[in-house]
Amino acid sequence: MEKRVLVLNMDHSPVAVVSPQKAIVLLLMEKANCLSVYDLLQIRTVSRSFEYPAVICLNHYKNIPYRGVLLNRINLFRRDHGECQYCGSKRQLTIDHVVPRSKGGKSSWTNLTTACHRCNVLKGDKTPEQVGLTIKNKPFKPSLAYFLSEYAEKQAEEWLPFLNSKMLQG
Question: 97: which of 116, 126, 141, 150 is 20 to 30 A away, CA to CA?
């Protein structure tokens, strides 16, 4: 499997994740500097060999409008680690409105949580407190850095020093 490369803006905020080929092009065109490499990995061409970049930083600041993390089913399950936030089950997962829509609850990061079918049916049109359920982790709006740090912990430890804890929750 091909390792990915973290791209940081000039202020060291995460901008993108790119292929190693794209990263090498940015480095060769002197649009970025390499901050970290993957040990023991190289990228080879017919005539040259390059260190495998892990983190690169753009040489000029790029004004990128903040888009936030898209609120969708996949990202919601990722935020909640693929488990029911009431009982911990990883089976038959659905999305639950903590404050039901009928009671004015919105479809937002802070009001949606992952629930198994059983807990969702048990909760029904009530709040968790009304039926005696407790939420394991309070719903929050994740940042891009939050998801990148999760990826980094499993696939790219070289990224972790560049994803500081201030940016993990947005």
Answer: 150
Cβ pair 143, 167 in contact under 8 A? yes
Cα angle for residues 139, 144, 150 (degrees, 5° grid) = 80
Name all domains of the chain by residue range, CATH numbers in brackets.
Answer: 5-66+143-167 (no CATH), 73-131 (1.10.30.50)
- Provide φ and ψ at 57, rounded to 5°: -125, 130
- pLDDT digit string, tens, across residues 43-85: 888 898 889 999 999 999 998 877 778 899 999 999 999 999 9
User: Residue 26 class from Cβ within 10 Å (0-12 exposed, 13-18 middle, 19+ buried)?
Assistant: buried
CA distances (Å), origin 33, targets 8, 132, 133: 10, 54, 50
Does the predicted model carry a pTM greater than 0.85?
no
